[in-house]
């Protein structure tokens, strides 16, 4: 397939070349750095679905801050509100003090998100990141039930702090903890055995068996789509059955919507498709709208048993993020236009991947929901090679899955159809090169 022309001007470097990573980063920043190894250039500016390096070369961004930029880079509507707020000396750092920005965010979140969905959640600001939200959720579940055990799922990813790592599946990330990760029991995610098991018979069996060794859990934590785990999609009926089992057994259900929330799969919350109401929901990444640090832990009112200050954090009150979040909610979620457009664009990506699967039968296939889509390579090493070639041709995309076998696409939800087509053409060309 021919690669669509990219607006890279005469300044563009040859594919695969560019200004590289500055020596100060390579010598002074920790070896833990990751993305700059796969994308060896120095980025300078960004707008919408495009990010530009210091040589002027433009890249289509199908990574979008790992899903933190659902409305694109430097969204002009959100930027204007942010600049106005800073210019008038609005509060930047407020811990959990009452501020105008917090008040207006909460009012908007209630009126635009919660009430239309008939959801009654208390809102906790646990800290600035998704893993902060997960830690608060696990801590609250244990406090509310008086139990220690948490059920998580194979190939799950919930964050890099110790509690979140304990319910994460990736062995490399878990090994970094340096201590045993306890009080969590992994169970098979939907379709883990290729449909040969009858869903939750295993769970019911071990819950009832006094010899199973499973302590009665405080909660189950689940992603409706496992992004880092390889774009594994849970069926709505599987999620509904899980919610019903948890309710019947007095086990709290935590849905981790850090990456899949804020419209990534279509609806604002990814669990809406299953018709369920989780007890606790973790939200971060695109909730600020602008890529600013912000996280929420949502929970049913009867679970709000915290003592004042029992769980806190210095940066739990990021007021500029409240400002951009309010505007994002007002702009994109006062009607269902973005939701429908996300579903439509997701279908476009899925159809593109279906075409590749037919062309290269047995070598690649696609899976996903909404605007999180994965192209799965039968030979895992080829996914990284495809991403490398795509980068050389002006596209940012990352890999995921236990063997990095999946090219995971997380483009901005606001991307145009032409931009989406250009990016998909680049990936199709890269796929053709590695499979030929």
Automatic annotation (TrEMBL):
InterPro entries: Aminotrans_3, Aminotrans_3_PPA_site, Dat, Ectoine_EctB, PyrdxlP-dep_Trfase, PyrdxlP-dep_Trfase_major, PyrdxlP-dep_Trfase_small. The lineage of its organism: Bacteria, Bacillati, Actinomycetota, Actinomycetes, Mycobacteriales. Its cofactor is pyridoxal 5'-phosphate. It comes from Hoyosella subflava (strain DSM 45089 / JCM 17490 / NBRC 109087 / DQS3-9A1). One of its GO terms (biological process) is ectoine biosynthetic process. GO terms for molecular function: diaminobutyrate-2-oxoglutarate transaminase activity; diaminobutyrate-pyruvate transaminase activity; pyridoxal phosphate binding. Residues 1-24 are annotated as: Disordered. CDD domains: OAT_like. It holds the Pfam family Aminotran_3. Pathway: Amine and polyamine biosynthesis; ectoine biosynthesis; L-ectoine from L-aspartate 4-semialdehyde: step 1/3. This is Diaminobutyrate--2-oxoglutarate transaminase. Transmembrane segments: none annotated. The keyword Transferase applies. The keyword Transferase applies. NCBIfam families: dat, ectoine_ectB, PRK09264.1. Belongs to the class-III pyridoxal-phosphate-dependent aminotransferase family. Its EC number is 2.6.1.76. Coiled coil: none annotated. Keywords: Aminotransferase, Pyridoxal phosphate, Transferase.
């Amino acid at each position: 397939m021919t690669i669509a022309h990219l607006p890279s001007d005469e300044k563009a470097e040859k594919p695969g070349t560019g200004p590289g990573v500055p020596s100060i980063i390579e010598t002074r920043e920790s070896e833990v750095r990751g993305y700059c190894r796969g994308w060896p250039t120095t980025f300078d500016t960004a707008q919408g679905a495009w990010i530009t390096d210091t040589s002027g070369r433009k890249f289509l961004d199908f990574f979008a801050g790992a899903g933190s930029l659902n409305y694109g880079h430097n969204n002009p509507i959100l930027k204007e509100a942010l600049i106005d707020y800073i210019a008038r000396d609005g509060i930047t750092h407020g811990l959990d003090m009452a501020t105008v920005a917090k008040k207006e965010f909460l009012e908007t979140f209630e009126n635009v998100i919660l009430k239309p969905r008939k959801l009654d959640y208390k809102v906790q600001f646990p800290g600035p990141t998704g893993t902060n939200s997960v830690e608060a959720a696990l801590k609250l579940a244990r406090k509310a039930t008086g139990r220690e055990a948490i059920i998580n799922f194979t190939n799950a990813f919930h964050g890099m702090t110790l509690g979140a790592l304990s319910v994460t599946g990736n062995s490399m990330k878990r090994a970094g903890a340096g201590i045993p990760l306890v009080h969590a029991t992994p169970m098979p995610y939907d379709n883990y055995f290729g449909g040969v098991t009858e869903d939750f018979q295993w769970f019911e069996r071990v819950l009832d068996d006094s010899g199973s060794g499973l302590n009665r859990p405080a909660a189950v934590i689940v992603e409706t789509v496992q992004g880092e785990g390889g774009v594994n999609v849970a069926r709505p009926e599987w999620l509904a059955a899980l919610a019903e089992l948890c309710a019947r057994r007095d086990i709290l259900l935590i849905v981790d919507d850090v990456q899949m929330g804020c419209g990534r799969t279509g609806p604002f919350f990814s669990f809406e498709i299953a018709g369920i109401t989780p007890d606790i929901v973790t939200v971060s990444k695109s909730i600020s709208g602008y890529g600013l640090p912000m996280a929420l832990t949502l929970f049913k009112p009867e679970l709000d048993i915290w003592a004042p200050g029992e769980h806190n954090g210095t940066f739990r009150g990021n007021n500029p993020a409240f400002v951009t979040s309010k505007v994002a909610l007002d702009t994109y979620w006062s009607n269902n236009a973005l939701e429908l457009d996300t579903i439509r664009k997701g279908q476009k990506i899925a159809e593109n991947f279906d075409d590749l699967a037919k062309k290269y039968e047995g070598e690649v296939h696609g899976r996903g929901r909404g605007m999180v889509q994965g192209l799965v390579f039968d030979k895992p090493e080829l996914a990284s090679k495809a991403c490398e070639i795509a980068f050389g041709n002006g596209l940012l995309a990352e890999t995921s899955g236990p063997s990095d076998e999946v090219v995971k696409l997380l483009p901005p939800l606001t991307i145009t159809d032409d931009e989406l087509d250009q990016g998909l053409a680049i990936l199709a060309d890269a796929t053709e090169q590695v499979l030929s």
